[in-house]
Amino acid sequence: MPQQWQLGREGDVGEYAIKIPLEISGQIGEQRLIVLAYPNIEPLAFRILITFEPAICRLDYEHGVIHTNTQANAQEDVPAIVKGPHYHPWLLNKRFFTTASAPIKLHNAVELQTEIRSFDSALRWFCAENNISLPHNHRIELPSRTTLI
Amino acid sequence: MSIVEVVKNALSEVSSFQEIGGGVRVITHCMYPSNSLVSVTVRGGEDTYVVSDDGGAISELTSSGVELQHSANVIANLAALQGVAYRNGIIVSPLAAKRELPVAILMVANASKEIASHLFSHTRIKRKRNFKEMVHQFLSHKFDGSRVREMEIVGASNKPHKFENVITLNGGQRLIVDPVIRDPASVNARVVANFDVKSAKLSGIEQRIIYDDEDDWSSSDINLLTFGATVVAFSKADQALQQFISRR
After folding, report:
1. A68, B77, B143, B179: most buried, per Cβ within 10 A?
2. Does B172 lie in the same domain as B106?
């Protein structure tokens, strides 16, 4: 049976979420793999993140968006502007983690490889990138549209 | 190439217009706390338009893994200060005529950015350890669960105070075990409630305030708690309650 989606947040935004506990060294704690889906938006848009209570890395799959890496330093070797789907890796953002009690601003992002064009390929890539073992038959599917137009 | 053209080209790199269902999505030059550029959507007919952020301000926060802690009213007030409205999770402009459209786009983009910044800087990640629930479970295990009840008790001021754990002991004596978390509002509320009940000098009522000693409490805060009732650290609650029961 596919994963059950819940309304991500109240309002007219049409955001749906699934939150999957992550098992780390045999223990399940507060860490979650979260997928946020926007089934009524075209073209395809979704987000995949790992939370450790705040999000520590995130993949934003959305066409037409622009992200700027204004806080990157030379060693981080990221482009000044990233267009379209992109990824905020932990390694490039951990220096912005200053307190456990506030959300982390994931300032730095890199473009997503162009061959990642579907939710399944993005999810598999994201999990591999973060050493998450995702079963081959994982049953995580994006929700269907909820509106006609 | 003249410097004007260089600047024009540079700015065109970071703005775009895209037709989406029923409107046009505009990427503006405003920047969210995460450094993504604010995009707004313009929808409308021939003469009037509405600009919205399609939930971008709230999404900026929720996609950082934390839940929205601000009420809709608070966000609506922040939006109103910027001359826009907040409805159902989305920031929207008033109806704008064609000549007002540029200003409406700027207002919504700026409001979305400002509100996202406000939410980011005023959101705290709550500890998942639910101390009140832990205390209730501990007491339900220690005593017969049906003896541990939420109850209202009227204080000396004649004000009724709600206590989450009132244990009815053999002989009808009641023991209030009141959890407090390390937050000024919680400390003040629980001290006042306990002090008021203590001042009523009700017969057959004993009071304890219980705090989570895994938290970093200052001695002055613990001193303040003692004005309400005898204070017990959670790690020593079992021992302290046992002593109380055996002394009766």
Report:
1. B179
2. no
Q: How many domains is chain B partitioned into structurally?
A: 2
CATH number of residue B158's parent domain: 3.40.1350
Report yes or no: A70 at the B interface, CB cutoff 8 Å: yes
Contact B68, A9 (CB under 8 A): yes
Q: Could you tell me if B12 and B116 lie in one domain?
A: yes
Positive or negative, the Cα torsion across A94, A97, A100, A105? Answer: negative
With beta carbons under 8 A apart, name residues in chain B contacting A146.
none
Q: Where are the alpha helices (DSSP H) in chain B?
A: 3-13, 56-62, 72-81, 101-121, 131-142, 184-199, 219-226, 237-247
| pLDDT tens for chain A, residues 1 to 149 | 567 788 877 666 788 998 887 877 766 667 889 999 999 888 899 999 998 878 999 999 999 899 999 999 989 999 999 999 999 999 999 999 877 777 888 999 999 988 898 999 999 999 999 999 988 888 899 998 877 65
Domain extent at residue B18: 3-122
B144 vs chain A: nearest CA distance in angstroms? 30
Residue B157 and residue B74 in one domain: no
